[in-house]
Each structure stands twice: as structure tokens, then as C-alpha cells.
Write a sequence for this structure.
């Protein structure tokens, strides 16, 4: 195991971690503020990528398409909140699961009806599609570094919004004591609308960033949704700080696990059994991590409720 | 005794009784006329009704919204597969092993998941089911993500009972009936009352000197075992086992069945399962994009039902 390989895998892990953070931060606020279970958050990730891919192709400009795509994700978030989510905010978790599951069916099929079931690609402009030499003989794709930078930027922005603004104060208060906040005269429905639409935009943005790497397809939101759930549960529902730390932890553990599990198993097992047990263990690693965290702290690392 | 019970049932559950009657007549007519395709669909519906009924038990009685109930069901199918690959195909043996496997999986994951409540519980059960999904996807013995064909269907004392789908349908309907009867007995028992109490008012339940966890864990793993039994029949029906059996979409479908039929109604899960399976089959025959149509129907049901009958709502 040489240093360059390890460095690349750590960067890949941070990459996945920041993508997960972008998805999970909006989701954790929706859970935290409204106690709303939204299975359709992965759909918003997928839709964001499709919006961006279509708008980049339409406008011919990458940056314009990126901005318009984020705006479209925001608009989609507003529309969905207005048509569906608002009516279920006070319903039970079961109704929410049913409705958002229905949204997954509708949008996954709807998108493959309009764009086809195959993968679209988001073509990066030449200036972004290159690799950056980090040390001699080892370079890393620029776009992946941009994802890390964008994730850090959004984390800072969210921190400033939540810690320094009045809106952020209401979100913080709403995530721990929603009834009290409402009793003090705050329109919690409007707060929810804003949080929800902003979360949808972040998810859409994450979908665009990841879609430029891996391609855009109708089911791309599925695996990300489950990983975002793991992140939220590990980090603590409603805590953006928890989501950031858990996202990076999950991203690193998953990526490094997949990269090195077979080698590490090889130290204890024969070559052939390590080759079959390694990948199995690697794909289960984050769930084992989640189970361990929850066994010690049932409401996550940074629970906001206590 | 029995006619009185039947009369009560018809009075309290007229829709269920009517539908049951229609299905029994349709099944008998199919047998007489020798039409086999509907029996495959009936078997499928009854099998999913078994799984949905077991989920409805922990959901309605214990307030445990598990979004990973396809995992024990899929494990039941994989137990069938692995025993069949080893040459064991007796239905009793397979069912016993599947029940133990499903119950053990649920007990182990339940130990951690049941420490949590609400949204956490939903997400944790989902994550554990994904863990099982990835574990099965990475086992090359079972064909990895592609899945693998079942070498030979289960037999009853060496007799190839499940060779015909109509027999599987009959067995599934029979087992569904026994399960329905058994679970309604459990619901009325002391255990069922304690389980319900632990969910309706946990603070009071604890204050009375009860410990909620053993009741919940027992119910949760029992439901997992029952779900695995449905998995055995499903494996015998499809002849092909893939990790998609444990996929979270499957778990979502089970929740949809339970909620569609209504949690408060004892036979709700059965109605919901039959409605969803037949709706899927109907829409699948009409359009390639049947998921879209199904999603729209489900969404309309949720949004409109919330408006018309707020009373059916169950908030765990």
C-alpha cells in the first residue's frame, strides 16, 4: 500500500463525504424541524442533475446551466412543498412514507419516460476536465477537488446562516421545540417551506456535481438516499454539524473500506477467501459503523433533542 | 361457535368478507376451468399478504414502522435457495430454518433498532435491510447482484406439492388464513395487550412495572420469522432468487400495502396486498410506465384520504 494510493483514496472519500453532506444537510433539517420523513429527497438529487444536464445542453454554457439548474431545483422544491408536503406535515409518518414513496415512483418513471432510461452525461468544459498534479507523478481530477471546495463552502455558508441569522435561529429553535416556536408567533409553515426548498436545491446541486462525474440516470438518487439516512442517523437528526462530521466519516469509511478491505482481510485469511469476504465486508462496513454508534448513542453523535 | 364468529366477522368486515368470497369463487372457477395464469397472481398476492400481515402486526400493535421488512422475507428466500443447493428440499425443514433465520435477523437488528423511536427507527430498519441486501449482493455463491435460479422446488414428505403454481396458491391462502387467525389470537392475548399498551402509553406502561423492550423484541422477531415464511413460498413461486428480494423498494411496497388497507382494520394488510398486487399487474399490462401510474394513484389516495377520513390515521 503506497502513499499516493492512500492519498487518492482519502480524497475520494472526502469527495463522497461532501456529496453526502450536501444531500444530508437539507434532509436532516426537514426531519429536525418538522419531524417529516422524506423518502423523495433522493429524487430531488436526481432531478437536480437532470435539470442541470438539460439546461447546460440548452444554454450551451456550463456555468449558466449550473446556476439555472440550481434555480430549477429550488423551484421544484417550492412546487412539491406547496402541492404535496404541506398537506402531510401534520399527518403521521406512515402517510409521509406512503406519499414520498409514491413520489419516487412518479419521478423515477417520469424522468425515464422523458429522457430515456439510459444515462445522460454532463460534459465539463475543458478547463475543468483536467487533472491537477499534486506531487510528482501523481495527479488528481480538478472537478473532484472543486466538489470538496464547494462542499466546504456550503458548510461554511450553512454555519453562517444557522448560527448568525434570525432565520437560522428560528430553524435551530424549531428543530428542538417546534411547539414553543409556533406559540411565540412564528409561521412555522413558512419556515418549513424555506428549509424544504433550500434542502431541495442543495440536493439538486449535489446531484449535478456528482452527475458530472458518474453520469445522470433515473435511479441515481436511490443509493444516495440510503447513505444520507445513515449519515443523518449517525450524526443526529436535525444537526447540521452532525451531518457534516458523519458525512465525512461515512464517505471515508466507505471509500477506504472498499479500497483496502481485501488487502486487510488478506492479512488474516487465505487469498481466495479474502477476495470474496473483502467486498462483502466493505459494503456492510458503514452499516456496522452505524450500528456501533447507535448501540452507544441511540440518537446519534450530535443529537439536537436532548 | 364458528358460525357465530363468521357472522360477527361478516358484520364487522363486510368488504373483507365480500372480497374473500369473490376470491374463493374465482379460485375455484380457475381450478375447474383449468386457467393457470390467475393462480400465479393469486399465489403472489397471498404471499405478499402474509408478509404485509406480519408487518401490520408490529406496526399496528407495537407502533414499529419498519421500512426493512423485505429483509427477513428475502432471507427466507435465500434460506430456501441455500438448502436447495445443499440438497435439502423438505418444506417443513425449509420453513423451520427460514423462520429461525428471519427471526434471528430481526432479533439481532431489533436489539439496536428498538432502542430508538420514530424517524430513527424507520431509518435504522431501512439501513439494516440495505446491509442484508449488500451482503447477499456480494455473495458470489448466490450469483451476486444478478441472482440465481432455484435448483429444485421444495417438497412435502418427498411429494412435489409446489410443482404447480395453483398448489402454491392454495398453500399460501391456507397459511395466510392460519396466520390471520393466529395473529388475531395473539392480538387479543395478554401479550398483545401489553404490546399495544407499550406503544400507546409507554410512560404509563413502564410505571406499571413492565419493561417494553422484551415485548417489542419478541413481536419484532416473531414478525420477521413470519415474513421469512412468505419468502420461502415466494422463492418456490418465482424459481429465481435475487438481491432485489431484499431491496428497500420491496420494503416500501410492504408499507404501502399495510397503509393502503388501513392499520386499524385486522384484515387491512391482506386487502392492501391484494389491491396493490392486482393493481400492479393491471397497470403493468396497460403501460410500460406503470410505476408512474401507480405512484399517481397512491399519491392521490394519501392526499384525498387525509382530507376525508382523518380518523383512520395512526401516528406511532
Amino acid at each position: 500500500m503506497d502513499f499516493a494510493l492512500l492519498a487518492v483514496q482519502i480524497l475520494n472519500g472526502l469527495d463522497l463525504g461532501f456529496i453526502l453532506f450536501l444531500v444530508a444537510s437539507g434532509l436532516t433539517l426537514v426531519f429536525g424541524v418538522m419531524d417529516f420523513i422524506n423518502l423523495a429527497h433522493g429524487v430531488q438529487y436526481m432531478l437536480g442533475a437532470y435539470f442541470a444536464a438539460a439546461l447546460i445542453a440548452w444554454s450551451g454554457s456550463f456555468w449558466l446551466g449550473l446556476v439555472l439548474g440550481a434555480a430549477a431545483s429550488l423551484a421544484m422544491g417550492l412546487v412539491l412543498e406547496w402541492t404535496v408536503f404541506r398537506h402531510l406535515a401534520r399527518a403521521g409518518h406512515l402517510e409521509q412514507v406512503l406519499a414520498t414513496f409514491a413520489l419516487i415512483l412518479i419521478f423515477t418513471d417520469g424522468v425515464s419516460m422523458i429522457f430515456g432510461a439510459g444515462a445522460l452525461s454532463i460534459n465539463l468544459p475543458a478547463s475543468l476536465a483536467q487533472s491537477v498534479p499534486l506531487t510528482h507523478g501523481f495527479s488528481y481530477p480538478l472537478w473532484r477537488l472543486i466538489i470538496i471546495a464547494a462542499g466546504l463552502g456550503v458548510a461554511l455558508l450553512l454555519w453562517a446562516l444557522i448560527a448568525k441569522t434570525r432565520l437560522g435561529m428560528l430553524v435551530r429553535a424549531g428543530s428542538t421545540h417546534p411547539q414553543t416556536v409556533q406559540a411565540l408567533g412564528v409561521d412555522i409553515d413558512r419556515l418549513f417551506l424555506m428549509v424544504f426548498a433550500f434542502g431541495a436545491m442543495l440536493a439538486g446541486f449535489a446531484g449535478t456535481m456528482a452527475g458530472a462525474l458518474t453520469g445522470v440516470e433515473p435511479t441515481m438518487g436511490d443509493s444516495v438516499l440510503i447513505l444520507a439516512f445513515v449519515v443523518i442517523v449517525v450524526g443526529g437528526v436535525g444537526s447540521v454539524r452532525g451531518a457534516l462530521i458523519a458525512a465525512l466519516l461515512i464517505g471515508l469509511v466507505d471509500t477506504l473500506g472498499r479500497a483496502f478491505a481485501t488487502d486487510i482481510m488478506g492479512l488474516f485469511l487465505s487469498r481466495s477467501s479474502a477476495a470474496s469476504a473483502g467486498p462483502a465486508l466493505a459494503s456492510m462496513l458503514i452499516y456496522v459503523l452505524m450500528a456501533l454508534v447507535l448501540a452507544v448513542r441511540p440518537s446519534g453523535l450530535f443529537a439536537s433533542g436532548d | 361457535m364458528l358460525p357465530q364468529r363468521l357472522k360477527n366477522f361478516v358484520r364487522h368486515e363486510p368488504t373483507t368478507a365480500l372480497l374473500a368470497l369473490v376470491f374463493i369463487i374465482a379460485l375455484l372457477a380457475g381450478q375447474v376451468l383449468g386457467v393457470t395464469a390467475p393462480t400465479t397472481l393469486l399465489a403472489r398476492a397471498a404471499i405478499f399478504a402474509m408478509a404485509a400481515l406480519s408487518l401490520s402486526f408490529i406496526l399496528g400493535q407495537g407502533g414499529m414502522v419498519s421500512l426493512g421488512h423485505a429483509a427477513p422475507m428475502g432471507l427466507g428466500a435465500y434460506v430456501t435457495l441455500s438448502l436447495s443447493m445443499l440438497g435439502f428440499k423438505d418444506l417443513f425443514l425449509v420453513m423451520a430454518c427460514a423462520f429461525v433465520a428471519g427471526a434471528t435477523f430481526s432479533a439481532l437488528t431489533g436489539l439496536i433498532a428498538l432502542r430508538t423511536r420514530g424517524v430513527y427507527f424507520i431509518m435504522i430498519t431501512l439501513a439494516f435491510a440495505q446491509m442484508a441486501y449488500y451482503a447477499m449482493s456480494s455473495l458470489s455463491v448466490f450469483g451476486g447482484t444478478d441472482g440465481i435460479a432455484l435448483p429444485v422446488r421444495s417438497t412435502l414428505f418427498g411429494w412435489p406439492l409446489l410443482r404447480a403454481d395453483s398448489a402454491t396458491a392454495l398453500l399460501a391462502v391456507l397459511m395466510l388464513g392460519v396466520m390471520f387467525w393466529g395473529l388475531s389470537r395473539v392480538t387479543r392475548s395478554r401479550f398483545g395487550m401489553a404490546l399495544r399498551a407499550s406503544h400507546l402509553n409507554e410512560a404509563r406502561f413502564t410505571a406499571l412495572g413492565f419493561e417494553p423492550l422484551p415485548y417489542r423484541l419478541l413481536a419484532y422477531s416473531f414478525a420477521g420469522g413470519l415474513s421469512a415464511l412468505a419468502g420461502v413460498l415466494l422463492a418456490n413461486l418465482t424459481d429465481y432468487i435475487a438481491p432485489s428480494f431484499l431491496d428497500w423498494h420491496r420494503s416500501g411496497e410492504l408499507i404501502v400495502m399495510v397503509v393502503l388497507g388501513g392499520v386499524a382494520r385486522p384484515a387491512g394488510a391482506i386487502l392492501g396486498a391484494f389491491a396493490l398486487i392486482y393493481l400492479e399487474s393491471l397497470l403493468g399490462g396497460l403501460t410500460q410506465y406503470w410505476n408512474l401510474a401507480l405512484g399517481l394513484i397512491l399519491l392521490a389516495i394519501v392526499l384525498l384520504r387525509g382530507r376525508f377520513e382523518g380518523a383512520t390515521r395512526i401516528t406511532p
